[in-house]
Amino acid sequence: MISAILIIHNDHSLLEYSLESVKNYVDEIVVVDGAYDWVAPIFEHLGVLPYETEDKKELIDILDRSGISYKYYNGTWLNETEKRKFGITQAKYDNIMNIDSDEFFDIDIDLLDEFYNSPELVIGNCSFPLYFTKDKIGQAKGIKSPPNKAVFVNRNNATVEEIVDSMFLMVPNSERVKKLPNSKVSNARIGVIHHLSNFRSINGGHNRARFYNMLSSRVSGNINLLSNIKINSDHELVEVLKKQDKRTIIALNNSFYFHRLTIGYPVIKDNQEIVDSNESVYSNFIEKIYNEFLADMENNLIKNSRKEWILFSGKKIFLDVTYAITNSKSLRFFANQHDLNQDVLIGLNLFAQDSDVNRKLVSSYEFTQRLVLSADKDYTSNTGEVQIRYIAEISFKTPADIISFNYEIT
């Protein structure tokens, strides 16, 4: 018997698919909902509930439809370490599986039984490929397979503190005080996680981008977007956030939104390469979700036309403009500076990216205050059947710290 632990907050756009992939493995789900204390001030400024998913009814409906027995808990949590400790302590069974809402699982049942029958092993890993398109994944150069992630836990063989300190988490080193020795971790890859983080809905992805950006600040002790403010503790982080005015918090939150959109233009690191994914029983699901993600990008481009965005000046943002380019639309970009009677310099680089995640610079522009990306240029010629994404990389230069920006599709 296996208890699954699901840590969540405003991030369930892919959960139904994920639960479908684990329903034959798990006997109950422990759902732990809510945000962390150190990010709560942002939610207070934005009017977002910190203690539970805003569309809780939809989350509960997804859990009900899964047919898996579940227990639901919510609240605000000191940090991810404490939230995960709580989830493990609420599990009915000692055999535990960690699941996320953006993952599909292919599990080797024989290896899983072997792991849980071990008197010594505590952590069981799965390989962890991250999808960039429906059939392309990233992995380290020179490595034949993607990295591992701790998924399965044998609670009989370690304390809760040791288990959580040994998991695949981005936390300060001060929270890893009882990490297990390598001998407690299985060498076998018990299965494959098809990691679909890049294909979340815009809203779910925005929430996740906000979490990881703030988590990075917490771990590094440096809030880059707020003039490189240094912090030494969660208390200092909370105090810094509380001191910001609402306009600054909105600019911070909007930067997380546009960070989410960089998924359309993935950054391939020097030590990384993009390769073909292996065929999976979930190939059709993955293609379906990828196509839904592309449609979501298009819908949000249209929906947010003429919306005012408050942003930090001097920072790049990315916008997927595929819909406008492929449908011969013109895009007009406007930067407004209400506080200073000075021009705003807008720079825009337009990139084309194919389904193999190869990209090239198509055009560059630099305008003052207003920029028009004309539809009369034939960007889409000679592409054949290759699926092309068009990504606009936009930057603003102005003496002010914060500007307002909007675009219009005509």
Quick overview of this protein structure:
This protein is an alpha+beta fold. It has helices at residues 15-22, 40-46, 56-66, 80-90, 109-116, 160-165, 202-220, 234-243, 246-261, 283-303, 322-326; strands at residues 2-8, 28-33, 70-74, 95-99, 103-107, 123-127, 130-133, 136-140, 148-154, 185-195, 222-223, 229-230, 272-276, 309-312, 317-320, 331-336, 345-353, 359-368, 370-373, 389-397, 402-409.
List keywords for this structure.
Spore Coat Polysaccharide Biosynthesis Protein SpsA, Chain A, four-stranded antiparallel beta sheet, 410 residues, 30% strand, alpha+beta, globular, Jelly Rolls
Report on this model:
- The protein has 410 residues and is of the alpha+beta class.
- It has two domains: 2-199, Spore Coat Polysaccharide Biosynthesis Protein SpsA, Chain A (Alpha-Beta Complex), CATH 3.90.550; 305-410, Jelly Rolls (Sandwich).
- The protein contains eleven helices and 21 strands.
- It has an eight-stranded mixed β-sheet. Strands 14-21-16-19 form a four-stranded antiparallel β-sheet. A four-stranded antiparallel β-sheet has the order 15-20-17-18.
- A hairpin with a 5-residue loop joins strand 11 (222-223) and strand 12.
- Helix 1 (15-22) packs parallel to helix 3 (56-66) and helix 7 packs across helix 9 (246-261).
